Amino acid sequence: MSTFVIIVIALAVAGALTYLLMKKGKIQDLNNNNIPDVIEEKVAEVKETATNLKNDVKAKTKKAKEIVAEAAKVIKTDAKAKKPANKKKTTK
Fold it and tell me: What is the distance between the alpha carbons of residues 69 and 74, in angstroms, rounded to a whole number?
């Protein structure tokens, strides 16, 4: 419980300090939305990176599915080729 309280107090102090520095002009906030411009830029970078990563994963998943389908065809064809012909057994 005390760890939680310490974390909340630390976050509150950091937020208050950031707010005061923005109001004094030490930290830029050009559009006056009380979010520092540096943080807005980093969030935009993270969103762009996440979008690129998501698109890469989709493309690689599609390629992997194609490879699996092709491998299944090869295995199926190979299994048919190795299947022995039906021969009648001769009994003595």
Answer: 9
Asked whether the beta carbons of 8 and 15 are under 8 A apart, the reply is no
Q: How many CB atoms lie within 10 A of CB 40?
A: 15
Contact 47, 37 (CB under 8 A): no
Full DSSP string of 57-70: HHHHHHHHHHHHHH
pLDDT for residue 12? 97
pLDDT at 49: 97
Task: Answer for the pair 23, 15: CB distance below 8 angstroms, yes or no.
Answer: no
Domain limits, the chain:
1-35, 36-80
Non-local (6+) Cβ contacts of 34 within 8 A are 19, 22
Q: Which residue reads 């979008």 in tokens?
A: 51
Cβ proximity of 22 and 29 under 8 Å? yes
